[in-house]
Amino acid sequence: KNFAFTLVHFWFGFFCGFSAQTVYDQWFITLYNIVYTSLPVLAMGIFDQDVNEQKSLEYTRLYEPGQLNLLFNKREFFICIVQGVYTSIVLFFVPYGAFCDTTRDDGTHLSDYQSFAVTVATSLVIVVSVQIGLDTSYWTAVNHFFIWGSVAIYFSILFAMHSNGLFSIFP
């Protein structure tokens, strides 16, 4: 999740001349690891299980791959890096291609920086949440609450930050 988040900044740097302008809004950068993606990962780490309690006590050899470091090694880490790089490329260049040189019927530009940033950020939150959902093998009510709740919180904050009512109160 963090490779995809960070490398989108890297790809954006090529198009803004490495001027230190960020592709995401400041509020999104602040809330990404705190609100949108930390609780689903935490819930997955706490509640996910491959086998039930009875089978894990009955077959103690199930713990050996973890103790021998067979499930997370350099190869698995490299696969995670490649997946993060691929995800970041898709998350950046698909919206970039969609927004590049687009115009309305009256000839004005359809795209702007904020529309691009919101599209990339929304895609990132959805992709990361779906990926966590796909990696979860034992679903509980807490997993559902945190995974889909983080997406709901994202859209709630997005709506609040970009609504005209809030803008008229705090210009």
How would the blueprint of this fold be written?
Blueprint: H1 2-15, H2 26-36, H3 38-47, H4 53-58, H5 64-67, H6 74-99, H7 113-135, H8 141-161, H9 164-169
Helix pairs in contact: 1-6, 3-8, 6-7, 7-8
How would you characterize the overall build of this protein?
- This protein has 171 residues and is mainly alpha-helical.
- Helix content is 71%, strand content 0%.
- 16% of the residues are buried.
- The model has no long low-confidence stretch (mean pLDDT 84).
Mean pLDDT: 84
Main beta-sheet strand count, sense and barrel state: none
Rg on CA atoms, Å: 20 Å
Query: Strand fraction band?
Result: under 5%
Instruction: Give the termini separation.
Output: 33 Å
Helix content: over 70%
Pattern of helices and strands:
HHHHHHHHH
What shape does the CA trace take? elongated
Q: In terms of per-residue confidence, which ranges show pLDDT below 50 for 5 or more consecutive residues?
A: none
Number of strands: 0
What is the structural class? mainly alpha
Number of helices: 9
Short synopsis of the structure:
With 171 residues, this protein is mainly alpha-helical.
Question: Which labels suit this protein?
Answer:
171 residues, mainly alpha, 9 helices
